[in-house]
Every structure is written in structure tokens, then in C-alpha cells.
Amino acid sequence: MPPRKPLSASAFAPAHITGFFAIREDENPALMGSIGCGITLESGITTRVEVGGSDDVPCPTVGSVVSMLTSLPCSVHARSGVPVGAGFGVSGAGALSTAFALNCALSLDLTAGQLLELAHIAEVENRTGLGDVVAQSLGGVVIRRTPGASGQLDRICTDEKDVLWVVFDKISTKEILRDLNAANRINSIGIESLRELLKKPTIENFMQQSKRFAVETGLMSDSVSDAVQAVEAEEGMASQAMLGDAVFAIDMSGDGAVESALSEFGSVGRSRIDFKGARLI
Q1: Contact at 8 Å (CB) between 190 and 22?
Q2: In a designed cystine with 91, which of 54, 128, 191, 205 is the match (CB 3.0 to 4.6 A)?
Q3: Domains in the chain: boundaries
Q4: Could you say which residues of the chain have pLDDT below 50?
Q5: Where are the alpha helices (DSSP H) in the chain?
Q6: Beta bridge partner(s), residue 136
Q7: Domain 7-155+275-280 class in CATH
Q8: Torsion over CA of 211, 156, 235 and 266, rounded to 10 degrees?
Q9: What's the pLDDT tens digit per position in 67-101?
Q10: Mapped to the 3 state alphabet, what secondary structure does 130-153 carry?
Q11: pTM
């Protein structure tokens, strides 16, 4: 009798660039998270899972999702369309796409909300993120009004636009989240940034508040600062991806000036805004 073919499925979750945020602690990991705003990308993580084959997962956060859904051996293969460790929410996208794929492969019949909560808990418990998963589940330019897996979300109304970026270095999300002094600065400025965005929820104001947050928290690196100035010299808008040493910009005009300015600092990545959120493929 031939060996049984492993159960398999594939899913996608968009990358997510956080512009600004404030940390919200809670003993319950489902309720812990962040408020703020970020932008999701058509580039992201594509994950294929095979159940019953070899036991292989790419990272602890994904491993946590697998262990919450099944005790069977699973092989998880993730392909990233964005840089890893640079503020693009890769761990969250990996966790969420894994949850969607496993739910399908095992016919678990869990809802999208239940899968979101599992992926969010995995992120929080592994200290790899606080708000990426909830934004990645929705898509668009996502405002996180309240924290946690079931937090209140909203979206800035915008048409299709290109997001461009240059990555300079990696930043450890865990280290910053554990730094109490950094957390205190982040929280006070993040709350104010969200308050100002809600007064005028446009993509232009999102970029303004993101830059303000990066500067006033002291998180903006010298490399990002130089790149932001170069983009602004071409009448563009740019800021730093949180939490990563990377500059991101919105191409408002489409005339190539922003990309040209960024190209002086390294290889330029580009992706359109995603409006679909996590999904099976």
C-alpha cells in the first residue's frame, strides 16, 4: 500500500509596516497588544504547510501556532517577499498564514477571528510583535484604536498607492519591547500621534505622525533621517518602519522622484498597498 500523502494547504498574509504605536500591557496575551497605525503590503509571506510529514518550522512564533492547533508533526515552508528583521511584520505574517493554512489542511473549521487570536497570542508570547497580526488580518492602512486580538480596528480611506523602502540594518523587537525607558517614550508619543491622526485620518497625516513618532522617540537612525530628508527634498513623505532600521515612503505622485531619491541609499523595494488581508491561496 503506498504511503499516505501528507495533508497540505497554502496561505498568504501581507507584510505590515507600523508607522507609530503605543504598548498596552495585559496579563492575558489575547488582550495585550498595541494601538497605532500601519500599512499592509501586497508583498508578504506565503506559507505552505504539510501535516504528517517531517516536523520542521522556521521560527518559534510559527512553532507556537502549530502547537496550538495540532500535535501532529508539521512541515512549514515560508517564502518572504519582504526583508526579514527590518520592521515588516514578517513573524506576524508567518504566524497568521500558518494558522490559515493549518486550519484548511486539517479541516479544523475555525473562524478567521479565532485564527487571528491564535497568531496574535503566539506573537505576544514570543515577544516578536504586538499589533501586526490584527492589521494583517484586515489589510489596508489600518488604525488600531484599541489593543489585542479583538481590538477595534479602522482603516484610512485611500486608493492604490505604491510603498517604497530601503533597509539599512536589523533591530531586535524583543530588546526594545523589554526596555522600560524606551517603552515609556514610545507610549506617551504614540498615544499623542494616534490622537492627532484621528483628527484627520488621511494617508498624508499618517506619514506626518509616523515621522514625528520616529523623531521624538529617538528611534530614527541617522541613515533613515538622511533618507527622509532626501525624499522630502523631492516633496515626498517618508518615515522609519517600526521596529526596524528601514525607511519607507509613499509614492504620491508616481513621477519616479521618490524612488530616485531613495536609490541613493541602497536597493529600493516596492509594493502596492494590500486591501485583502490574510487569505488562503
Answers
A1: yes
A2: 128
A3: 7-155+275-280, 158-272
A4: 1-3
A5: 60-69, 90-105, 112-126, 132-138, 173-178, 180-199, 203-216, 222-233, 257-263
A6: none
A7: alpha beta
A8: 60
A9: 999 999 999 999 999 999 899 999 999 999 999 99
A10: CCHHHHHHHCCEEEECCCCCCCCE
A11: 0.94
